Amino acid sequence: MELAAPVASAIERSPIHHALALSALAREALREQDRKNTGAYHTDFRLATRLAQLAAPKLNHKSKVIDPASGAGILLAALTHAVCGLDRAKAAHWLAHGVCAADLSANSLRAALLSLASFTDDLEALKAMRARWHCGDSLMADHKVWAAMAPDGFDAVIGNPPWEKVKLSRHEFLKSSGAKRHYGAEIRGLDEDRFATQRDEVSDYSRRLLARYPDLGNGEPDLYIAFTDLFFDLCKGQGVVAALIPGGLIRSQGTQAMRRKIFEATQSVSLSIIDNRARFFAIDTRFKFLAMALVKAGHGRSKREPIKLLHERGTSTGLEITGTATIGRAALAAIRDDLSLPEVRSIAEWKLFSKIAEAGTSWEEPGCGWTPKFCREVDMTKERPKFLGRAIRGALPLIEGRMVQAHRFGVKGHVSGTGRSALWKAFPIGGSRISPQFWIRSSDVPRANQHRTGMLRVGFCDIAGQTNERSLMATVIPAGVVCGNKVPTILFPEDSSEERLLVWAAIANSFAFDWMLRRVLTTTVNYFLLQSVPLPKVTKDGLPWKKLVSVTRELQALDHAGSSRKTQARMAQLRAEIDAEVAVAYGLDISDVELILQDFPILDRGQTALPGESKSTITRDSVLTAVAKRISSRGAVWSRRAAEALALGAMAYVPSELALGSDEIEEEGARVHG
To answer: Fewer beta carbons within 10 angstroms: which end of the chain, N or C?
Structure first.
């Protein structure tokens, strides 16, 4: 008791409910590699409380509930508190008859029992509860296991399932064996026989999962998709499923079948989008996940409510809602065939997203000429031994992601060093040039891609983020260079003209297109997400087409003409004209463009602000001036502001990193977006 007294005292002083605190203290320690291998991440008390709040309104102390991946039971503890409160009689009944758990670890189930025991002193209730629990693999458990717990199904299924894919790489195998290494390092000391045995075991489990959960699709199974399927099956009609799952559910290509199942077989769906900046989990702070709460439809006809989409932000003690939108299911299906959900924060944003989607055209529309052929020309890891540190006859400059920005090619040059310690110099607008870190012989480029190095194409930096200054950065890639895998390139086989490449670069770098992409983006611009953003209907050889061709061609020339204020001003003017032309092609008005620009709050960092204002808005004012002029609307206010800012030395469309460090920029963007 002397040892327990300080712990009990600390729990009493803590703002965390005692049952949740006990669960957190009793959980098994997870090494980094354990988390990677199993995809298991302990649930933060704030998330447990929030998920319980979402599930509790449809429950009472006589309900049957289960967590099939219970861990130390923090979700069940939070749900017990939310449903039963301080009523110990209700808690005893709830525990004795309704609370079920399953987990691979017997120690975790012991921890769950400890935390739930704090709600009652009725030992018989605890014995009855523990007798129902299952220790084993929930995904492979026989249906009889669940039927014995709840013959008619569960009133609620709650969980934070594993988030990892079922796969085994040589890198992860070595790390699990104790080797200290980083991804991409040379493979050494591999026990091939042991690796082959484990790989076969993983492959066998993967096949069994795919056979049991068809919604997993093909390829490497995602454990959270299988668990979501299980949650849905365990839940009875009119019951509740509340779960923490990766954001990929609402946007990934591989989760389309699960999205369709959820949207078609539920009465209501609430999805809260949460990022990890409040450090709920020991993973990248940019990672996004969902707090999902759905009510499963019954056997009879029932009304399908619109999808409720929330944005939530972590605080020191919980979460707060920062945005809300309601999305009709039919309206979503009309503009998103795959039912992927855009991350809109308000009704106004949803209306704008729908407006652009309806006005645009699919990349695959027959006869439109936009069907793309993507390529990652050189893999920076696989081909690394073939790289050269200097130019030699017959070698091609290797273009990396940092060398590409909007309408600019060769924006940074290598100074010294390699990897994360490499130093790069940023070239001013108008002064772009090719100064790479590496070269590669044309014969060492993968054979299937060699022909592309002699062609004009477009490329983009695939490392991005929703809160970056700009998300998509694309440019025309000249012949005579080869691009690394972080700069995917695009050709349009149906129309290989230079004009189509120039028009695509203009559209891709526009604020309207970037805003749409930010609604579906995570940290990488993959092909599936990029192609999900519709292109504006710009007729080839029409006046808007010719305008975009002319302006983009001039931008390409100016960026290598030498840096001067005159050059920068002209390039800013041309980019504003592009933004206006693309906005009009999407059918947007001034208010739409104003809403779009609100999503880019860290533009113009380092530019001189107007007197009495805290920050410059010269890019916003320049864009609105150009749009107003294009649609013959009043724009005198923005025109005057832009002119005054220019006179003070500010310049539109200048990336903030030319004046500020990138770390400061990223931090500012995260703070503004919440």
So the answer is: N
